[in-house]
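agent> fetching stored inputs for the calcium ion docking request
agent> found them:
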Amino acid sequence: MRLLLVEDDALLGDGLRAGLGQAGYAVDWVRDGEAALAALKAGSFGAMVLDLGLPRRDGLSVLQALRARGDATPVLVLTARDTVQDRVSGLDAGADDYLIKPFDLDELAARLRALTRRAAGRAAPCVIHGGIVLDPASRQVTRDGAPVELSAREYELLALLLDHAGRVLTRAQLEQSLYGWNHGPESNAVEVHIHHLRRKLGSTLIRTLRGIGYQIEKAGGAD
Ligand code: CA
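agent> prediction call returned; pasting tokens
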């Protein structure tokens, strides 16, 4: 999943980018409020981690501008201010969750999982689709109870298609989610990953809509 990190502290930003990258996110990092708004305008992100004390435009004002233009990107606010009033202002401005610095990276990762799970409209931690179960906490996938070995990219692609089951995602959308700004994907990378997923999970799971994109159909029955 592509994540926008907005943090002006170089040391913390660097650590977060590395840690969240390790947790499987494609992290785009900007260091001030204006850059954050520009990034959000230019592309779509699965979630944003937003520091409040920022140069050029503070985090609260970024959040207000974002929500005012109808952007529903899930936002987790990082704040060094731990007064009740600051937390209330953040949540009222449209934050979905917050963490007070200093915080633990594992807790941040768990809160992001909960946030994106809610954004996808799921209450249960695991994604279940027919015989396929995907566990975002462990990043494990099983098919009919048997573990399936997926590469990091294959996992991300599957998670994304499952989160948007019933919708068609274009190749450009998938590439953006997988790679962010930093790595120019090879022109056929998505096709290759899809090919591998079909081999491992069955040929009928992912539909190709020629010239449009890819889709996993909504699972019938229990979800
Ligand atoms: Ca700051």
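agent> quick read of the result: The chain is about 40% helix and 20% strand.
agent> awaiting further instructions
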